[in-house]
Amino acid sequence: MYREDGKQAESKCDIGFIGLGVMGANLTLNLVDHGYRVACFDLDQAKVDGIIEKDVQERGDQAARVEGCSSYTELLSRLTSPRMIMLSVPAGAPVDHVCSHLIDAGVQADDIVVDTGNSLWTDSVEREERYKSKFIFFSTAVSGGEVGARFGPSLMPSGNPYAWTRIEPVLKAIAAKVDADTGLPIESFVPGKPVLEGEPCATYIGPVGAGHYVKMVHNGIEYADMQLICETYQIMRTALSMSPSEIAQIFRRWNDGKLNSYLIEISAEVLEQMDPQTGAPLVDVILDKAGQKGTGLWTAVSALQVGSPAQTITAAVFARSISSLKEERVAASEVLQGPDVKPLSEEEKRNTINQLEHALYCSKICAYAQGFQLMAVASKEHKWELDFGGIARIWRAGCIIRAVFLQSIAKAYENNEELDNLLLDPFFSQQITEYQSDWRQSLAQATLAGIPCPAMMSALSYYDAYRTAVLPANLLQGQRDYFGAHTYQRVDKPAGKKFHLDWSDPARPQIAVKK
Ligand code: 6PG
What we know:
By secondary structure, the chain is α/β, with parallel strands linked by helices. It is built from 20 helices and ten strands. It folds into three domains: 15-208, 3-Layer(aba) Sandwich (Rossmann fold), CATH 3.40.50; 212-466, N-(1-d-carboxylethyl)-l-norvaline Dehydrogenase, domain 2, CATH 1.10.1040.10; 471-515, 6-Phosphogluconate Dehydrogenase, domain 3 (Single alpha-helices involved in coiled-coils or other helix-helix interfaces, Up-down Bundle), CATH 1.20.5.320. Strands 3-2-1-4-5-6-7 form a seven-stranded mixed β-sheet, sandwiched between helices. It has a three-stranded antiparallel β-sheet with strand order 9-8-10. The radius of gyration is 26 Å and the shape is globular.
């Protein structure tokens, strides 16, 4: 048996794990792969038995390192002190339920309780305060789904810096690894043979709450990324009459280039999948109603609250909402007319596919720009001092939005820590300059064909608004002042000074309009 921190294994367990759903069980097995002995507990005894069996299957009786517990008290008694206990339970009330059971069971003030769920970041802030006399509450957001949890997730830890010094070796061991030079993941999916080299995708994000905020924005970007891929699929499917497998081939080709990412890769796989029951492409059998657990919505709400434009993320959340109105859409499709569409020649189709690759890429840059801009606003507001280069680096592997492209984002922030917006980075601004015509053409074509592209269009509008020196908000301020005396600032006076015009004054100077 080995442990990466070099310590000898003791008779007691190193870590306690509560909540053995898919994520919890896989994180436990990942810890075990790295030499930690883990005491486990779940309200469902079958899950405890299941993980012990799995550990024995993978490692054999002699080397098994998971111990099952039948109560919170037993779990605490099996751990070396000061204890480290990880939780993987649904966000919200279940986290507090577990915390209060741990208090009843005798958790100590220097024990650390690490929440690994998809918690709302403000809940983490409240929990640190609420439990501070009982134990150290720490949070570690986890991305990567079940495979990531098992073989290397991306981790976004935040909270008490002392707790971090104790948790750091554990989290860095189980995290996904990347080749620092290429930014590419170093992967192994063999139980018991974890990746030991490379840069770990786990870095201290900041005070409690910061890690879950960053994970929330990760998910907002994930929503946008997924929706953009889906819109691109829809254009190929509808305007270019391509089959799912033809589109899968295009995605595979794109995956060899600048769009290389986990989400493009799995989209190709989904499109190639046949339905075992009907033999039809599975995508045609899956009902077009998107679910959501709330993290995209939280990102959109936060963006609205702090006033940081994140329209592509918000559009992606609304795209899921409109998808869920299936019955209404079906009825509306019988009533509401779209445009007449002219079929495209083979050459036009080829051009459109090439343009779409660039449209997706430019839109993706904007979605990430919005996510990073939102984190920058939150960082300033909460004094988190987020390291954006570091965040991009830990998203290069393990997480759902992992992509080659994140290496370029990391570089952008390494070159300029004060970068106001990713769009202003010389590499990204040059990329959009080069490809924007294709982006605009793709959207023009989609519009003429009546294909909805809410995320892609919002991305282009974001780009155009961000690069426009004078927006029509001058007229808007005039309207506000007219009906509500809400005042306006002037271009020729110091910022912040407010002006109001008496709109009811018949003598106010007006441009003569010919009637
Ligand atoms: C991740 C995922 C993970 C989960 C999403 C799904 O990073 O591993 O984002 O957190 O899959 O919460 O979210 P929706 O159900 O809202 O799509």
